[in-house]
What does this fold into?
Amino acid sequence: MTARSLTQGRSYGEGEHPVKPRLEVNIGGLELKNPVMVASGTFGYGDEFADYVDINKLGAVVTKTITKSRRQGTRPPRVYETAAGMLNAIGLQNNGLQDFIDNKIGKYKNLKTKLIVSVGGETNEEYADIVSALSAYKEVSAFELNISCPNIEYKDKIIACDEGLTLRLVKEVRRATRLPLIVKLSPNVTDIAQIAQAAQEGGADAVSLVNTLLGMAIDVKSRKSVLGNITGGLSGPAIKPVALRMVWQVHNRINLPIIGMGGIMNARDAVEFMIAGASAVAVGTANFVEPKTSLEVLEGISDYLCEHRFKTASELVGSLNVS
Amino acid sequence: MKLEILSNVILKEDHYLLELSAPQDFKEALPGQFVHCRIEDSCDPLLRRPLSLHDVDFSAKQGLGIVRVLYKAVGRGTQLLASRKPSMSLDVLGPLGKGFDLKTLDTKKKIFIVAGGIGVAPLFFLAKQLAARSSGRPVAGKVVVLVGAKTKEQVLCEKEFKKLGCDVHISTDDGSKGFKGRVTDLLKELLPSTLPAGRQALTICACGPKPMLAVVADLAKKNNCQAQVSLEEFMGCGLGACLGCVIRTTSGYQRICHDGPVFDAGEILWRG
Ligand SMILES: Cc1cc2nc3c(=O)[nH]c(=O)nc-3n(C[C@H](O)[C@H](O)[C@H](O)COP(=O)(O)OP(=O)(O)OC[C@H]3O[C@@H](n4cnc5c(N)ncnc54)[C@H](O)[C@@H]3O)c2cc1C
Ligand SMILES: Cc1cc2nc3c(=O)[nH]c(=O)nc-3n(C[C@H](O)[C@H](O)[C@H](O)COP(=O)(O)O)c2cc1C
Ligand code: FES
It folds into this structure.
């Protein structure tokens, strides 16, 4: 179903004018002009999509995850298509914090939307260092902590898979900035709401979910994994039901705003996430399929709100009918 | 953008020629560039498929352009593409990527074009541009084309290259046509006789499977000549954003969709 078809068949009575709904949302102190953003790692630094999307129309742009030092990333092949989804193992390839400051941040000078920097690290200190260094730049509006990478400090454990590690990391990074902190959760856990609670206790302003689900695929001819890294992260429509369920669970457990993502291909998907409890949504894999998806989603959400007589986007959030 | 399918016909065993109506965006397109094609509106296949520009033709009167794509049906996406009929449309992004560097292709030097299998697709467009550049002067003796295929039935574009005036050599793995063996063995045979000792008097442009390109790169190095190779990898965005399509080079991982697909062979770390 396309964004357009959401409003098909709707006709307004005489003298009846649809009121333009208010799209602004507040994500833990971060004021967004609308609830649609792009997911980290699927939109580069924004400029790669400039020919297709006026990024200033988005609620926010989230960068590829930045680490303190340069990371060369994993051995190719790095992406592979699976049923209604894709596997990726990029390994957080990026040029590091200093390069971001020297060569990238300046490009956002005239940005007319919010810039959220995704931050990764191997130790808690690295996260705190990046956040503290970038807080000084007025271009940066908020941080998203990508805590789904292995943490060397705790013997290669994934932070987001452990309550205690999540709590400690968020606490430490909290001290490094006054800007809104969004904690990005991993779906590879038994109880995601428990981790979300730890993030809340640590001082997070919002949570975003989900990151990719761990997966793999094998080429039976060579008996090799299709990915250089052997395993990778699954994203796209295949994971949407799982992601949606997790948003609903987290929404029921904590009080922080949620940024929902995982397989959003169109406005209907996005509306589902909002009904389940997401205050904002992020478009990821769909950017590869159609670079304009994020703007189509935005338009479709607005149409939906109009059609269903919502005056604001926030009214829709968590409005699941459980009767 | 949605381009109208003008025709889509089978040439030989699983090999198809697709013609699309092309807007002005393609007028300056370079050989080696590609279009990133959305085959289905649904989720299967989900990702776009990269296909090289086989030819871009704006010679028609009304200024209407044609983009040609030569492809081999190897899996779900390309098989579905093969079933598309004229007057349907195909959603493409492009032209994308960095093509062959025509500026560094010295017209005084001999140019060897080496095609392995479906790798011939972008090389016809290259040969055509080289022929156009020589503005009427014959390219025979200047542009040498080596077309490698598994069997006689899979040899592509022979006539077309000849029409452009190129010297054409064929190799087949089974010896059913031309030289018996790999196209790189044929290249090895043809190279020494044309190379004045120690002087870099020729350039190689190649496209084909990675192991073949590795041999081409090695031969180029040994003969002290420049080689440009067009590489392939699975792609996500096709726009340089996802870092999914990388190849290891002397300056780290580079994106095939954005920094390539055409690279200087000397930059590639083939065993990476
Ligand atoms: C820059 C670029 C230009 C290309 N130009 C052409 C062209 O002009 N004509 C043409 O026929 N093909 C071309 N290819 C290869 C083409 O993209 C793949 O054959 C196609 O994506 C396969 O899709 P599928 O759904 O049919 O097969 P799938 O079911 O996805 O895969 C079938 C088989 O094809 C292989 N394959 C899939 N994708 C790729 C890929 N991107 N590169 C290499 N092998 C792949 C898989 O390993 C598998 O064995 C190009 C690739 C790149 C990267
Ligand atoms: C190619 C690719 C690269 C990604 N890189 C990152 C990253 O650097 N940091 C991060 O937090 N998430 C990364 N993700 C995860 C996405 O941001 C998103 O959480 C996930 O893909 C689910 O959403 P989707 O199904 O809409 O793609 C990446 C996803 C993909 C497909
Ligand atoms: S396919 Fe995304 S960077 Fe090349």
Notes: The domain at 30-263 of chain A is CATH 3.20.20.70 (TIM Barrel). The radius of gyration of chain A is 19 Å. Chain A has eight helices and 18 strands. The first strand of chain A starts at residue 25 and ends at 27.
